[in-house]
């Protein structure tokens, strides 16, 4: 069997490529496209030269893609137009959605008319995409072209990984009419477990009892506190707003591109000292602060609060952190940004296995 020729759009640091390799599907990524030069540099460092191209995806045409003869498309378009964290999200009207809309509404139909369209697609995006106008156009177009589609909302917690990163996925397979599409997103891969329900969304449904690993299994060895400690000035002003977790925790918040730059809803920080109660310690700090006690911040220092390292985030995203290469010119700030934009490799690998099941 010849490898399935694959093209990766919005390739970032190569999470979809890594997931395809991990899935065991016999496939080759022959081309990847991304606009970010630093993301392309990281991709090339990990997947070799000649695959990724720095390209404005909105300028691609069917004539550009047809010679690649790719039967599998992997896509992870910009999430900002649809994320609930962006109060100005405008869906299909957002300029950042334009390149994806171009691919779906122009390029894919042109390839279909030339009988050169892909046989399979996988799309990843933020939770919230399922209610967007972009999603409606995507599903309608795929249905009209003859694809069977399945939509899912999945989190790594379902797969034992202590990270709450709820994401929308669509998988599609071209087949003769009549095409089919799911009525609403599934919350588990068919035949593989049960729905997982995040109780923070105010539901009373029982969450599936999936054993989740402790965060400690994903942490670096050795002392990294000094380099990654949360600055005292940040703790003094904003410390109460952080999501603080212990090494024994079995959940972390979703890490975003603003990790270490923002406080709320950007990702969890680690309290290395498990012997202290977080709330009691912060109460003591605030009491000292109100009383103008000199050195009040020393109370918080005892918690040993730090950011998770890029290597630790790579492990939570199911990348092989020990083998992952960061080019020297890619700063720590950029590493966090690129990781916040990436995908969970394990979840996507499971979806690809399902997509290619006989």
How many beta-strand segments?
10
CATH architecture of the largest domain: 3-Layer(aba) Sandwich
Order of helices and strands: EHEHEHEHEHEEHHEEHHEHHH
User: What is the straight-line distance between the termini?
Assistant: 14 Å
Q: Figure out the total of helices.
A: 12
CATH superfamily of the largest domain: Vaccinia Virus protein VP39
> What is the residue-averaged pLDDT?
91
Taken from the alpha-carbon principal axes, the silhouette is: elongated
Give the biggest sheet: 7 strands, mixed
Derived from helix and strand composition plus strand pairing, the structural class reads alpha/beta
Strand-residue fraction?
5-15%
Radius of gyration: 22 Å
CATH topology of the largest domain: Rossmann fold
pLDDT below 50 for ≥5 consecutive residues: which ranges?
202-206
Percentage of residues in helical conformation:
25-40%
Keywords: Methyltransferase, Transferase
Protein name: S-adenosyl-L-methionine-dependent methyltransferase
Topology, element by element:
Blueprint: E1 4-9, H1 15-23, E2 27-34, H2 37-47, E3 52-54, H3 62-65, E4 72-75, H4 98-113, E5 120-126, H5 133-145, E6 147-154, E7 167-174, H6 225-228, H7 232-238, E8 244-245, E9 269-271, H8 278-290, H9 297-301, E10 305-307, H10 310-316, H11 332-340, H12 345-355
Parallel strand pairs: 1-2, 1-4, 2-3, 4-5, 8-9
Antiparallel strand pairs: 5-7, 6-7, 9-10
Organism: Vararia minispora EC-137
Keywords: Methyltransferase, Transferase
Protein name: S-adenosyl-L-methionine-dependent methyltransferase
């Amino acid at each position: 069997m010849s490898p399935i020729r694959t093209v990766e759009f919005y390739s970032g640091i190569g999470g979809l490529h890594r997931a395809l390799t991990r899935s065991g599907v016999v496939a080759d990524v022959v081309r990847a496209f991304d606009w970010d030069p630093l993301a392309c540099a990281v991709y090339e460092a990990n997947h070799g030269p000649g695959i990724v191209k720095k390209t404005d995806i909105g300028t691609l045409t069917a004539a550009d893609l047809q010679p690649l003869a790719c039967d599998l498309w992997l896509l992870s378009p910009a999430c900002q137009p649809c994320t609930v964290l962006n109060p100005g999200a405008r869906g299909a009207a957002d300029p950042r959605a334009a390149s994806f809309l171009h691919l779906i509404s122009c390029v894919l139909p042109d390839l279909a008319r030339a009988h050169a369209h892909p046989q399979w697609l996988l799309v990843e995006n933020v939770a919230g995409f399922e209610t967007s106008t972009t999603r409606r156009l995507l599903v309608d177009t795929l249905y009209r072209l003859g694809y069977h589609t399945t939509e899912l909302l999945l989190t790594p917690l379902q797969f034992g990984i202590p990270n709450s990163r709820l994401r929308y996925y669509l998988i599609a397979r071209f087949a003769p009419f009549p095409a089919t599409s799911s009525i609403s997103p599934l919350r588990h891969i068919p035949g593989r477990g049960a729905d997982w329900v995040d109780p923070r969304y105010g539901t009373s449904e029982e969450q599936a009892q999936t054993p989740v690993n402790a965060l400690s299994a994903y942490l670096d060895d050795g002392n990294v506190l000094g380099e990654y400690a949360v600055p005292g000035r940040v703790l003094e002003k904003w410390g109460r707003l952080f999501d603080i977790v212990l090494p024994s925790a079995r959940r972390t918040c979703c890490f975003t591109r603003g990790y270490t730059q923002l406080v709320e809803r950007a990702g969890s920080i680690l309290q290395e000292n498990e012997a202290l109660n977080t709330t009691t310690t912060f109460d003591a700090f605030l009491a000292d602060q109100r009383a103008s006690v000199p050195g009040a911040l020393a109370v918080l220092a005892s918690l040993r609060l730090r950011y998770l390292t890029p290597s630790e985030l790579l492990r939570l995203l199911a990348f092989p952190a020990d083998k992952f290469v960061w080019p020297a010119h890619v700063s720590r700030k950029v590493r966090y940004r690129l990781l916040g934009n990436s995908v969970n490799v394990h979840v996507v690998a499971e979806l690809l296995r399902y997509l290619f099941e006989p």
